[in-house]
Structures are given as C-alpha cells and as structure tokens.
C-alpha cells in the first residue's frame, strides 16, 4: 500500500522500487515531468551550442557534422522527448482529478506507456556515445537519411519507434479514461477545457502516430534489411517519406499545442476570477483544429513540386485553421475582459502567451500563402515561426502550468519571485532570439546551416539572436534552482492553493491520497468546485456515493520488463547491417523478454486490491489530521 | 470620413512596412530587394499579407492590453467578484466572420500567383524554325555543388549560373544524390531538386549583376543535405541578352578543349593526370559529370562556392578539400600531389576562362 505519507518513511530502495513499479497516475505524472525536464535540459543545451556556433560568421565552436547532429537531436528531443512527456505529465497528474476518477482506465498501460517512452528516449541518446547521433534533421528526409553513414539514423528510427509506441498507448488510455471514467454528472459539456484538449489530442495521437510507425518501419527495413521503399534507384520513392512524415508531423504540432491551449484555458479563468468565455465555442474550436490538423500536411511540401493544384488546396485549408485558432484567442481575451486579473507567475505566462502565439499564428498564415512560402520555406523565417508557436505556445504553457499545478503535484509551491525572474529572462530572451530570425530568413539565410559567410548582412542579427538564447538559458537555470529549493520548502497541506480554483482538482486537499477521492464526487455543473464553493459547501464537493471500500490496481514491474525487452531487441536490430553474429540472437532474446512478460501478464490474474473504509479513515487522518479531508 | 481614415491607416502601415523591410539585407541575397519579376511578386505578397497580419496583431494587442490594464485586481479591489459571463453569440459570429473575410482577401492573390508561377507551358514552345523560344537550364544538384546545362546551346557549366536579363528562364531541377533545394533569394522563391523526378519552374532576372557589390547574385541550397549543406553556395551572373549570346558563343568555341598529359606546362600535365577524369575543361557537353566543369573557372567569383577567388584559396582547396567542405566527394580521389604540382595546377585552373 502506498500513500505519500507512508512513502516518506520508506528507505531509498523501497521508494525506487515503488516508482519503478507504480501504476498511480500521480506518480507517473511526476515521472513524466522529471524525464521531460531532463530531456528539455539536454535539448536546450544542444540549442545553446548551436546558437554559440552561429554567434559569429565562420565560427568553429562545433564541426559541421556535429552541428547536424545537434540540430537533429534538438528537434527530435524537444518534440518527442521533452514537450510530449511534459504535457503527458500534466495530463496524468490533472485529468483524472478533473473528471473525478481514481485513476486512468488502464493503469498498467499507463506505466507501460511511460517506460516505452523513457527507454526509447534513452536508446536514442545512447547514439551520442555509440558512434554518433542522427544527423538528417528531425524530419529525416529519406534520401539524406538513407545516405547518412554510421548508426545515427538507426538510433533515430528504433528509438522513436519504441517511444512512439509508448505515446500511442498513452493516447489510447486517455481516450478511454475520459470517455468512461467521468464522475456522475460530469457530462461532456461540463468537462474542463484541459480534459477536452487532452481527449482531442489523444484522438490525434491515435490517428497521427500510425503513419509515423509505418514510415519508421519502412526506413528500418530499408536501412537494416536492404528493402527499397525509399531507394529511388531501385524503384523506391523518397516523396512517400515526406508525405508519411508530415501526415504524422503536422498533427503532431496540434498534439502538442492543444493541451497547451487547454492549460491556458485553466489558468486564465482562475486568475481572472471569471468563467471561461464562450466555453462551447472553445470546445468546438478544439475539435475543428484537431480535424483540420489532418488536412494541411502538404503545406510543409509547397516547394517539393506537387503542382499548383495541390499547393492551392493546401494553402486554403491551412489558412482555414486560423479561424478556430482566432476564436480561441478572442475567447481568452474576453475571459480577462471584465474580470479581476491577478498577475501571479502562471498568469504572467498566460498573458505572455497571447501576443507571442498570435505572432506565431500570423506568420503561419503568411507561410500558407504558397507563392510567398517559396521564399520563406527552409529559411530562418520558418525557424522563427515555429519557435514562436512552440516556445510561445507550448513551452510557456508548460512553465506556467508547472507553477500552477505544483501545489497539487508536490504539495509544495514554487517561489513567485524567482518565477517572475525566470519569466522575464525567458520571455525577453525568447523574443530577442526569434523575432529577429524572421528578418534573417527574409534576408536570405537558409535554415540548418552550421555556419555562414561574413558580410551577407546577417552578422549582427545572428549575434543578437545568440544573446537571446543565453538569456533563455539563464531563465531556465533560475527555474531549476526554484524547483530545487521548493523540494526543501514546507508542505502546503491546503486546498485551493490559488484561492480561485474552479474545476474539481482544486476541491482536493493536498497531499492527494493515492485513491484521489474517498467518495466519488457528484458533478452538478460546469466548474463544479466553484459552484460548490459559492453555495457554501465547505467540503468542496457533493458526493455521489457513501463512504465504502475502494478498488485500486496493483503495482507491477511487468511494464518495465516489457520495455527493457524491446530496448534489448533494438540493439540487435541496430547492429544487424554490420553483419555481427550476435544481432539475430539479441533480437530474439529481447523480443522473448517482452513476449514472456506479456504472457505472464495474460495468464496471471491481477484483480487489484480493496482499500477498506477503516484504512481510508486512517489514511485521511494521517494526511490531514483529525476529521480527515473536511 | 471613417472609410477614408481606415484607408489612410492601411496605406501608412504599408508604407512603414515597405521602408522598414527594404532597409534590410544585401541586394545580392535578400528577398526584400528582389531583382526579378518572380521575387517582386513574392515581395508584394509578403507586404500584402504582412499588412493584413499586422492589422490583426494590432487589434488583438489593443484589446488585450486594454483588458489587461483596465481589469487588474489591484484596481478592482481584492474582493471584487466579476460577473460570470458564459459567452456571446454575436461576438462569436463577428470574430469568426471577420477572419474568414480577411483570409478570403488573402486567398485570391495566393491562388492566382500559385498557378501563375507554376506555368511552364512556354518551355516547349518553338518558333517557325523549330527552335525553342525560351531559354531552358537543366540544374543538377550534387553533393555540395551545382551543375548547369543549357541543352539547346549544347553547353554546360558549374557553380556559376549565367543567364540573360529581361526574359523568363525555365529550369529543370534534379538532384543526383540526395535531395537539395535551388534558391536564389533575390531573384525568386526556391524549388526542391528531388532525386526521383524533374521539377520545373521559371525565374526572371531583371537586373544585370555587374553593378552588384560582388558582381553576382548569391544562390543557396535550402534543404539539409549533409555536413556541408551550409557551404553549398552558387553564384548567378546576369548578362544583357547580347552579352549572354557572346558568352554562349565563347563557351561553344571551347569545343574539344582538353588538358594534355604531355604538356610542357606542369600545371596542365598534372591536371590531365589527376583532375581531368572528373573535371572537364571544355564548355561543350551535357550534365552528368563527376566533378564541376572548370571551363569558366577563371571568371568565377568564389573557389568551391565559399572561398575567396584567388590562388591561395585554390591551393588550400586542392591540398585538403575536407578542411573546407566536410563530406565532399573530391577528397582522396586524385592521389598525393607535391606542393609544386598543386601550385602549378592552381595556376592552370585559374587561367581557364572564356571571358576577356
């Protein structure tokens, strides 16, 4: 049995074992957050190295080959291994609480999803030590990635295949959780926006990741077993890779940005002390963005030569996405309009997000203008554009939400003053780095260049851009420091830390017990906690059931074992083209471990356990003192 | 009155944008200083779209800043409880319809331009004598260099594209190894060179390059293609039509030109033994060479696309190409050359020229 209070008394080994085997969504949320932060730091460092290299013309801080590895790993890591897990962290930590559930629908799969992601990510990063990282860009366009010597691309293909399976599994889990695990009264149109965006994002994952899986599989058999899907000399076609990659890759942008929208839709109403404006149109816009997100992939390929008709269609469909996105922006502004705005750190991030994201959005429309995109494509303009969307949208959401949800996740608060320092350093640094890159692109600088010749009119702007990157790094360092001192700070032991919480997660006292809700809540309207609070209900929720035994899932080490099996098998596949004798046996051993763990899982009945009423009462008293969660 | 005011605002915004943007960049590389009809059309689209977008940003920022300043809790009192508004259908309709109208306004020139810039029908037109009426250049992108073939003229060159001004020049684009992308920022947008198909488009060069600071426009590879992607530059020399005809004639006159291994010139002899297998010194021929055609080397602006055009650079390049362009395919192809041979071969290559 594990609760936060009990865990405190455990030794290090027991705690480690607990985290290796846990199926608790709150702990997995923390693990996603930590793993995501680790990879965010690594990818951030890679970005910093690139900006130092580009600070001066003809600089030789890193070599050309290393630079290509850095740019590839920066993009791949940030999107797949930093932004995705950080957002999954918040989804895990918050969504079950928002919908009044005791865990996700498949706790075992939740753990499996994490370990697949994590071991896939570790596998990819081992490439740095085993002969060189992938160097064909995060898009890994087929002609270059087939040409690329060494094992870098193999690490990319296998690592992403494993971690992508984890993401897909987690996506399915959230769809089922949100559809089936909502508390009584939590109808679809009462779900908080973050839950809505998680649902739509999970649906996007469900449809977007299979094309990537297929593309990676083609690449895998091309590189490792000599198939010819992409080898044009033998009848393959590299344009197929571009299509498959972007059919995944464009929805991936929305997979990341929709939860960010959801997080801001939670933060803004709390600190404006006002109901989210136009809730139903926000939901509608989310669904529409998700749908249109699949209709626009070829705008990444305007210069590939698809012909004017394809370009025209994709130009118009891309412009159409601006409409629902614009609806959201106006709804956020109208939410703060007439509200009572308190500028805390999370709100600061939300307020910084609106103009930054709008700037990223309008440059997106400019690039949808296909003939104009012929100039902007693959120049620094596009680099500026997608960083405005990703940093200005997603990273600001992640940082803001760290401050916002820290009390629920860790029962600690992050320091507000340090938070403001982080914000200003990061925010100013971000605009300094990327605003100027629009002009570098317009002035003719292509992207993904490891150096540039002096006196082409780019020297000063590149220098300024690098200064901005250093400021962003300082901001992140302050955030890390903030996180470290928060671990030493006093536990909060309170409910509704920000004072104006609206959705169900704020009705819970922290630390949240491992079963979340001792009685399942009854949801009587949108913003249930706000509703109960303003009707004078001190417990913060109405219950849908009497106090009774709670059924909870058992911990299991099998997800970790299954993931390790695939991790091992990947090494066999990786070295297969080298003709080493042990490659096939290692593939077989690895797959045997995975399949063996699956068989054990299938044959062994694991029915979970019951927490009895006396234990619930005891746990509550231990956590909150006499009287429990009142 | 209001209408006039709005128009005035729009135009002043456009004027400010134009001034601001045109101050940026060098005229041989910047998309903001186009020297061709295609680039000008794209710049006009940029200005048009940026104006619409700037309007959007200004409206949003104004609303947002106003709300932010006016509705601070510090102004409203700690206990102020705002009215909990659900939404407004009227507002929803307004901010759905206005963006749609703005996008439609932008979509019209977008679609017209998309079809216009893709129109390459004139490529196949012939005059009464059966000669093609438009100039076509076949571009082949290879790992870190560019080959330009003029099929109608029967000539081929590399690294420096030579074209006449004032007419549409049509391009067949292809990559020989991995995907690249052909981009001359100050002339017009880019087009990818794919490995499995030929892409076609046109550009128009309206200004002679001799007035430029470097005497050439700069061209770039815009698709990541390996370690030396950043160094895969080419140059564009634009000539008045008569001068272009002269250039073609002098290129054609190099037919049969070859370096002799028996030459008394050490440079030519070394070239014949070590270099000629890949590098032709006659401008007559077709694309498909192993290495760049060097017939016009002496007329060029850069060594290996990026180094200054002088003998020292050329010696540096021949001595160790890998130190200049990592991942290039020339390294190790021609055996060891002595310092004396390198110096002589550099002299010989620098002497190759078709211009006076």
Q: What key attributes describe this structure?
A:
heterodimer; A: 630 residues; mainly alpha; Cytochrome C Oxidase, Chain A; two-stranded antiparallel sheet; two-stranded antiparallel ribbon; 2% strand; globular; disordered N terminus; B: 356 residues; alpha+beta; Helix Hairpins; 5-stranded mixed β-sheet; 9 helices; elongated
In short:
The complex is a heterodimer of chains A (630) and B (356). Chain A is mostly helical and 630 residues long.
What does the model show?
Chain A: Residues 11-524 form the Cytochrome oxidase subunit I profile domain. The complex is a heterodimer of chains A (630) and B (356). Chain A is mainly alpha-helical. Helix content of chain A is 67%, strand content 2%. In chain A, strands 1-2 form a two-stranded antiparallel sheet. Chain A has a two-stranded antiparallel ribbon with strand order 3-4. In chain A, helix 4 packs antiparallel against helix 5 (107-126), helix 9 packs across helix 14 and helix 15 runs antiparallel to helix 16. Chain B is an alpha+beta fold and 356 residues long. Chain B has a domain at 2-71 and 85-117: Orthogonal Bundle (Helix Hairpins), CATH 1.10.287. Chain B contains nine helices and twelve strands. A five-stranded mixed sheet of chain B has the order 3-2-1-5-8. A five-stranded mixed sheet of chain B has the order 4-10-9-6-7. In chain B, helix 1 (2-22) packs across helix 2, helix 2 (37-70) packs antiparallel against helix 4 (89-117) and helix 6 (266-274) packs across helix 9 (339-351). Chain B is elongated.
